[in-house]
Description:
The complex is a heterodimer. Helix content of chain A is about 80%, strand content about 0%.
Amino acid sequence: MSLGQRVSSDHQLTRLLQIGVVLEELVESRAAHHIESLPPDERATVDEEVEELLAEAATESADHRERLEALIDDLEAETVGYEEINALVDAQYGPPEDTDGVLYDQLANEETAYKFYDDLIEAIEASDSEFAVDRERLLETLSGIREEEKEGVEEVTAIMEQRA
Amino acid sequence: MNTADQYLKAIYLAQRIEDGPASTGTLADLLEVSPASVNEMIGKLEDRELVDHEKYKGASLTNEGLERAHDALQTYCIIERFLANVLEVEEFKDEARALESVIDDTVAERLDTIIDRPDQCPDCFDAEEDCCELLELEASGHAD
């Protein structure tokens, strides 16, 4: 057991970045599943705004994934492919009841991702270890992604408030 | 998972291993910290009414402590299963221990949406083996 939040090796850093990739793949896959899961009549009435939000979330996650994969490449490791995670999502997927449920799930996605990057940045900053990837580039990439997750939370919250 | 939850989980497991109150020595071994650190944290958990401590016997979880320990162990099981079955990490036990302090409950909940976890989790956690007794391992690792 390891007490205290700190990343102390390349191996541990790699594993955490791999988890980040999976979280992004989850967002991407769930957003796609949400659109497909809505019954056709409801799908037609889903606000353009919500559909756009889900499409944007999927695109943004794909972009985050690529940025994380570039770091993982430098650490000479691999990631689990999107298709594999998509298949796992498919196997366990329970569609939300309605559009509000979709929005709640999207909010949870964005909040979880934000929390993950926030904890990861804190754990890297708390460590004196040298990594095989440049520390400044690492923190810059993760901070950039965290900022976009924060904007994502604000965006979903704004839509939810409008609908309330 | 924060430090308090890691302690509560360790007390829960130690109580199962020892079939009674968790001794400071066992907790220090499980948490890889000094007995003095254990005693200090037990005092804090006692103040928060999560643990009862009896001198020369050891620490026992209160009902509230037990509930939190249960949740913490479930989070740990998710991390272990995710590492073993999704990332196919061979040394998943060691890695789960190294990562648990950095993985938040909300993150574990998301990871839980793609793993297959038995309904009785975390009762099927084997305290001696430090992993779920129902965990089936994949043949080989690919995410290293």
